[in-house]
Write a structure and sequence with these properties.
1% strand; two-stranded antiparallel sheet; 358 residues; 18 helices; mainly alpha
Length: 358
């Protein structure tokens, strides 16, 4: 059963992979060989460095800009290269780990909640396109609560292929230069990566995998993300990072060790070798099936033990952080959470002094 769980869990993060990769490749902005080859190299790196299933995902903000037509192939490559260099530089400083550890637990929990709810909302929109397929896939995946290491993702994938889906909308790309890559790619993505793919990802990995995640640190996550982008983006890879939601998705569907990233590395290598045939299959995947996978990734990320066990005075901080994430994004959420935590601490001190009396 453990081996089945590793294989099923390996594909648990497809809900955050396929919606970005498939339309970008079909639009001719990237080729399947370099894209899937890069994911194969990234998952092999994860298996060797971390020994637990740390996700590798397309960078969300960059992907959204590309899907909206804001960046072409050259802009994608430049964005990934610049982000890679910045992440390697940040990882080389001693301040990243200290800054991450200084973030209060209530703020990290709020960031996880906001990200999870955001992913679940996107998933529900995809499921609404084909409610029947989505409902069937959700029902199958819910069996993971009974048998966490069952083959549930492996059951959902053929359902999604049989149900089929509509063609991806065309991407009309405007001419873009280096300034566009910085303004529309690097600047929106960097705070999202530092919060979701470094700080929150490390917290989620340790929460889910305990001592087995001892190799997962903020600096290592920044370093592997940065090095992979710096090396592979100029060769045609999409900008990649380690996502907290993906770590939760791999775990939810049975992945526990290095077997899952090795399975994904092999699958991505095969996709790189047989790119056109694989793309023909993926282009026909039902968006509702992909949405079902994404929904459980969001739920796993949002509904944590930290959220349930939070002290009553910490819950407003968690709520404010999550609301800011949904409304304004990760950078604003981090700032909001830190301010809310300062207010909470100040009120707690005043309350304590009032009870001491004169």
């Amino acid at each position: 059963m453990a081996a089945v769980g590793e294989v099923s869990g390996a594909f648990g993060d497809l809900g955050t992979l396929l919606p970005y990769v498939v339309p970008i490749i079909l639009a001719g902005l990237a080729a399947p060989g370099p894209v899937f080859g890069a994911f194969a190299a990234a998952y092999l790196t994860v298996a060797v460095v971390y020994r637990v299933p740390v996700a590798v995902q397309p960078m969300k903000a960059v992907g959204a800009v590309v899907l909206a037509g804001g960046l072409g192939a050259n802009g994608i490559a430049l964005t990934g290269t610049v982000l890679g260099a910045l992440l390697v530089a940040i990882a080389a400083t001693p301040f990243l780990g200290r800054a991450a550890r200084a973030i209060p637990r209530s703020v990290v929990t709020g960031l996880q909640l906001g990200l999870g709810l955001g992913l679940a909302a996107i998933a529900l929109r995809a499921i609404a396109a084909d409610p029947l397929t989505g409902s069937v896939c959700l029902a199958v995946l819910s069996l993971a609560f009974i048998a966490p290491r069952g083959p549930w993702v492996l059951v959902v994938l053929p359902i999604g292929l049989v149900a089929g889906g509509g063609a991806s909308p065309p991407i009309v790309t405007a001419a873009s230069g280096p300034l566009d890559a910085i303004l529309w790619g690097v600047l929106p993505q960097l705070p999202l990566t530092l919060v979701n793919a470094v700080v929150v990802a490390a917290a989620v990995a340790h929460t889910l995998h305990g001592p087995a995640a001892r190799h997962v640190t903020e600096q290592r996550l920044a370093l592997t993300s940065g090095a992979l982008n710096l090396a592979l983006a100029p060769l045609g890879a999409l900008p990649m990072c380690h996502g907290a939601g993906g770590i939760a998705a791999h775990h939810r569907f049975g992945a526990r060790g290095m077997g899952a990233p090795l399975v994904m590395a092999a699958a991505c290598a095969a996709a790189a070798l047989y790119g056109d045939g694989v793309m023909a299959l993926l282009a026909g995947m039902s968006p509702a099936a992909v949405g079902a996978l994404l929904f459980y990734a969001g739920a796993e990320l949002a509904l944590t033990r930290r959220l349930v066990e939070a002290r009553p005075d910490c819950r407003p901080v968690i709520g404010a952080t999550a609301a800011a994430f949904l409304a304004f994004g990760p950078a604003a959420a981090l700032a909001t959470g830190l301010i809310a935590e300062m207010v909470r601490a100040h009120l707690a001190r005043r309350h304590a002094l009032a009870h001491l009396g004169p």
